[in-house]
Amino acid sequence: MKLRANLVIGGALFATVVVAGALAPFLAHTDPVMDANLMNAEVAPGSEFWFGTDAQGRDIYSRVLYGARISLTVGIVSQLINTVIGVCLGLSAAYWGGWWDDFVNGLTNLMLAIPSLIFALAIMAILTPGLTSLLIALGLTNWSYTCRLSRASALSLKSQGYVQAAKVLGYGDIRIMLTQILPNILGPIIVIGTLGMGGAVLAEASLSFLGLGIRPPFPSWGSMLSDARDQITTAPWISIFPGLAIFMTVLGLNLLGDGLRDVLDPQSRARTA
Amino acid sequence: MSGEALLKVDNLRLDLVVGSRRFGAVKDVSFSIGRGETFGLVGESGCGKSITALALIGLLRAPLAFGGGRILFKGREIQNLPGSEMRKLRGNAISMIFQEPMTALNPLSPVGRQIAEMFVLHKGATWHEAERKAVEALANVRVPAPDRRVKDYPHQLSGGMRQRVMIAIALACRPDLLLADEPTTALDVTVQAEILELIRDLSAAQGTAVLMISHDLGLIANMCARVGVMYAGRLVEERAAQEVFRAPSHPYTGGLVASLPLLGARASHGRSRLKEISGVVPAVTAFPEGCRFNPRCQARTEICIAEDPEETALPRGGRVRCHHHA
Fold first, then answer.
1. A188 to chain B: which residues are within 8 Å by CB?
2. Which chain A residues have a beta carbon less than 8 Å from that of B87?
3. DSSP B147-181
């Protein structure tokens, strides 16, 4: 199979962010939280501070590296929660049908009707700001597309011979869902999960920017942007580098998702085979 | 039939439910299958063969519903068994193979694993043990190099091989009864013969009774000791397979036998044109009054339209449902 450009570029961008986050303690020059030094406030990028420093004199390069940890944790974990919820609901709704299907459909429509960021804002307003609350808020508000997708895919597989055969051979409902249907709908779910991860990174940045996510002084790209608002004309680098990091991560995840879709979609696979 | 019947179907009625109306898609069907016996069910498409089989394993789905009668398996009534009990029977004591070997296997799972799953599911085997048994099961269905084939995915196998895998799965737990719903219809004629031979040999070796469902009278006559002929949801004739061929009693059976093509020498001084039964099987919602075959029957008289014939025992064994049976 020919490797696609979007898969390679997306994978490379995402891998860069992962490596940066994982190796942050070794790559960073200073401690991202403690090493505030007002003597070095708002130093422009240069040989000593690669990305410059912020208003408190902290090294932006180090903070962006550590910020990758938070963004990736939020993106991956919240999207995992979303995927598990969406798949469980969608798959069981398609398989069992009846009132459960109606209920899940209603719930999904409700979730789609409320903008997920507003919903997450409401949850964050109730919970104490912090990483766990952020994971919960973002993990509970973005499962509707995954749910729709898994329901639709499972519906079309439900009448397939091997699903019927499994029933005839005495498989239980849960076993049929997990061994017969789920593996066959995993491709599109992975794709939408990857795309959703980009969305979650953005949502984390938005929430932190609004002061409802990760609280300063901990380095999250969103809160860094928020802090940098006042200096955007005098010291633009304070906002440019976290912004670039968000841009790179989301672009990487979207390209990766698109690339995976091309690879995992049986129809496009058939075209290139 | 020897001794106590393994499966006894008593006045089975299956309804097609349309709104508040119920139509008897299958009506008053009774037959029994002895241990290790091969019983054939033959008839045109839409006569109720397949739904009868589905009813036996409790998998009728809307708009079809159980309408009445009894299904006795090993002397135990199973038509009202709760789902969990029925699930223990399925695949374990009663198994089934299908017409479509292309779609009846999970495309993302190696065939060995699909066979092994049966041992894990019904016999409580460990995966390790089950995968070893899967190789044996593949060898039993005469798949060459079974130790390598277990790792193959369904798309890597031919139609005949896939049907062999299906048979291996269905017979893995040594069921008492195998339901074979048109098992060879989708296969080449040469492969058909091999598959039928395989089913015959394995069921004989394991003492498995077979309910063979087909529209092919020749195939049924080859495989089965006794045959039931279904038409429009009724069992119209039930006799020894040989008898059905030699001297069909019901006009419909007669029509089926006459419609078989003759080949070679027999053809040259036999009839010249292939016989057919005119008309088609009526829809379930439009079954005629009286005998359900009457609109297509050449021996039809007044009584056929007025009265539904009762089952009559035939002097040489078997039953027929016709006012004018031969």
1. none
2. 170-172
3. HHHTT--GGGS-HHHHHHHHHHHHHTT--SEEEEE
Residue B212 and residue B52 in contact, taking contact as beta carbons nearer than 8 Å: no
Interacting residues of B262 by C-beta distance below 8 A, sequence separation 6+? B270, B271
For the segment A225-239, what is each residue's pLDDT rounded down to a tens digit? Answer: 877 778 778 878 888
Q: Which residues of A touch B100 (CB under 8 A)?
A: 161
The backbone torsions φ and ψ at residue B210, rounded to the nearest 5 degrees and listed phi first, read: -125, 130
What distance in Å separates the CA atoms of residue B96 and residue B59, rounded to the nearest whole number?
A: 12
Complex ipTM value: 0.76
From B122, which residue of chain A is nearest by alpha-carbon distance? A170
Supply the mean pLDDT for chain B: 87
* Residue A89, pLDDT score: 95
**Residue B311's pLDDT band (boundaries 50, 70, 90)?**
confident
Q: State the pLDDT at residue A273.
A: 39
Tens of pLDDT along B241-281?
Answer: 888 888 888 889 888 888 877 666 555 565 567 778 888 88
Listed in order, strand segments (DSSP E) in B224-314 are 226-231, 234-240, 312-313
* Cβ–Cβ < 8 Å for A231, A44: no
Are the C-beta atoms of A194 and A124 separated by less than 8 Å? no
Partner-chain contact B100 A160, CB within 8 Å? no
What region does B124 belong to: left with phi over 0, alpha with psi -120 to 50, or beta? Answer: left
Rounded CA separation B250/B108 (Å) = 48
**Which of A212, A64, A66, A190 lies closest to A126, judged by CA?**
A212
Closest CB to A169: pick one of B100, B103, B118: B118
Measured between alpha carbons, how far is B106 from A107 in angstroms, rounded to an integer? 31
Rg, chain A, Cα only: 22
